[in-house]
From TrEMBL:
This is Uridine phosphorylase. It catalyses: uridine + phosphate = alpha-D-ribose 1-phosphate + uracil. It is an enzyme of class 2 (transferase). One of its GO terms (biological process) is nucleoside catabolic process. Keywords: Glycosyltransferase, Transferase. It comes from Deinococcus terrestris. InterPro entries: Nucleoside_phosphorylase_CS, Nucleoside_phosphorylase_d, Nucleoside_phosphorylase_sf. GO terms for molecular function: uridine phosphorylase activity. Residues 16-227 form the Nucleoside phosphorylase domain. CDD domains: PNP_ThPNP_like (cd17765). The keyword Glycosyltransferase applies. Pfam families: PNP_UDP_1 (PF01048).
Amino acid sequence: MSQIHLRAEPGDVAEYVLLPGDPGRARRIAETYLEDARLYTEHRQLLGFTGTYQGVRVSVQTTGMGCPSAAIVAEELARLGARTLIRVGTLGGATPRVQPADLVVATAAVPNDGTTRQMLGGAPYAPAASFEVVEAAVASARELGVPHHAGLIMTEDAFYASTPEHARLWASRGVLGFEMEASAVFLVAAQHGLRAGCLTACSNDIGDPQLVPDEVLAQGVDRMVRVALDAVVRLAGAEAH
Ligand SMILES: O=P(O)(O)O[C@H]1O[C@H](CO)[C@@H](O)[C@H]1O
Ligand SMILES: O=c1cc[nH]c(=O)[nH]1
């Protein structure tokens, strides 16, 4: 049955789904990396494509920005038969350890957002990536020679409320950077028994309006996408054995 927001039928979506926030990134990934990519939904600009990468069927589904939209998309993907959700996003660095365009593989996301708070009724919970996805992403990054960090990130709602002081405080608790969707993707995936992961490329320092130069960020995003797709191939290979 077609979903309210993702106008797709079961069978349109692959078991492995990459989740960029930006519809332009979804189209670029589909056009650059997937063979026989087909657009299966474009309602509300939540562009979704399915094709194959090194013989593995993969979808790329836009989440839009923020947890409310990401939670809807993850829920509807689960209903459409997705089994592994991997966010491919950008993130604001919280610490000088994370440099412009660096790859950050999230192990978990501090849920500083209203969506997961409502879903959990305020109960304490630690939205986390699936171990197999983190393991595959780190193995892929190593094999492809992509420098990376693996660790805690924070998901929040208010992009312009983040300040350098806030970043410093959370960096002192181990947070590498901030983004806006991972906690919801991790929680919805857990509720449906799906695997989830989140890879990000650093687009700026928190509180710094200056983005990484376009071409530098584009290279970081490209490295992140190649690592995510290689991780999908790795996960699919492991499942086949
Ligand atoms: O680049 P994407 O994947 O959209 O991710 C980040 O960028 C947006 C904010 O600029 C938020 O969606 C945040 O999570
Ligand atoms: O949420 C985000 C994403 C990228 N950069 C930020 O500063 N915040």
